[in-house]
Amino acid sequence: MKPRYIPNLLTVFRIALIPPIVWTILHGPTQTAAVLVAVAVLTDGLDGFLAKNFDWRTRFGEITDPIADKALFISVFIALAYAGFIPVWLVWAVLIRDLVIVSGGLAYHYLIGRFEMSPTVISKLNTLVQFLFVFTVLISLSTGFPNSTVVKYLTYIVLATTILSGLDYVVTWGKKAVIQRSQ
Questions:
Q1: pLDDT per position as a tens digit, 165-178
Q2: Which residues, including other chains, have CB under 8 Å from residue 149's CB and lie 6 or more apart?
Q3: What is the pLDDT of the chain when averaged over all its residues?
Q4: How do residues 33-47 score in pLDDT, each as one tens digit?
Q5: Which end of the chain is flanked by fewer CB atoms within 10 Å, N or C?
């Protein structure tokens, strides 16, 4: 195996972690779910670091990495809501944002042309906030710390960054589409 494929293997590993994460959220222990989520997020950071710093980028990775991220967080959010740990409306907000991004990306691809997938700053912040939220919820369920007030505030921060990042993608890629169409 060539080293340039290590980021792809890490992405596939992250996808493979989704079922055990969901299972441990639903059946416990939530400490294990928290550790597995942390491992998944660390592999995401590591595969990005390796791909960028060693130029180990592949088209497979460009497509699969964001799909793995979306699959991970949507699965975790759905499991947490199903178990009654987070509000269902938050899951809908995250899901609708991701559907808007994916459908917009597909529309751009088929109507305008190929594009380079690149997360915006607010999108990266949203991913970080979602991870902190999920990790905090799981730790709070396990230990009682932090308390429900912290989790409540994080819920609204996730909602805000979810909405802002969704709008940012629509505006950013909408502008790019208009520019491309006018050329």
A1: 999 999 988 888 88
A2: none
A3: 92
A4: 999 999 999 999 999
A5: C
